[in-house]
């Protein structure tokens, strides 16, 4: 007899306060290192590698990541 495995489901409530989580968009990469990558690419702009580094940094700067966050706990942390 085969046993079925249940899928793990994430709870949509905060573990600290019990309020429903809400979807938010946050930057995927650290902005400091992305700006450093863009400036290094600008310094190496005479080489083809510099142009590629600049475009990679700009693409990384615009990428966002969706996360679930508690509005009450997020307001207390900031």
State the distance separating the first and last CA atoms: 53 Å
- The level of helicity is 40-55%
In what range is the share of β-strand residues? 15-25%
The sequence of SSEs as H and E is EHHEH
Strand order, main sheet: write it out. 1-2
Q: Got a strand count?
A: 2
Low-confidence stretches: none
Q: Please summarize the sheet with the most strands.
A: 2 strands, antiparallel
Mean pLDDT across the residues is: 83
Count, helices? 3
**Oligomerization:** single chain
Brief overview:
The chain has 78 residues and is of the alpha+beta class. It has helices at 31-43, 48-62, 71-77, and strands at 22-27, 64-69. The chain is built from 3 helices and 2 strands; from the N terminus they run E-H-H-E-H.
Overview of the molecule:
This protein has 78 residues and is an alpha+beta fold. The protein has a domain of 52 residues. Helices cover 45% and strands 15% of the residues. The protein has three helices and two strands. Strands 1-2 form a two-stranded antiparallel sheet. The longest helix has 15 residues. It is elongated, with a radius of gyration of 20 Å. The model has no long low-confidence stretch (mean pLDDT 83).
How are the SSEs ordered, and which strands pair?
Elements: E1 22-27, H1 31-43, H2 48-62, E2 64-69, H3 71-77
Antiparallel strand pairs: 1-2
Descriptors:
78 residues; 3 helices; elongated
């Amino acid at each position: 007899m085969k046993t079925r495995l249940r899928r793990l489901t994430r709870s949509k409530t905060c573990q600290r306060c019990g309020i429903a989580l809400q979807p938010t968009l946050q930057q995927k990469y650290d902005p400091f290192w992305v700006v450093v990558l863009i400036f290094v690419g600008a310094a190496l702009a005479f080489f083809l590698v510099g142009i590629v580094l600049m475009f990679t940094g700009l693409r990384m700067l615009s990428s966002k990541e969706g996360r679930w966050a508690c509005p009450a706990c997020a307001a207390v942390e900031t």
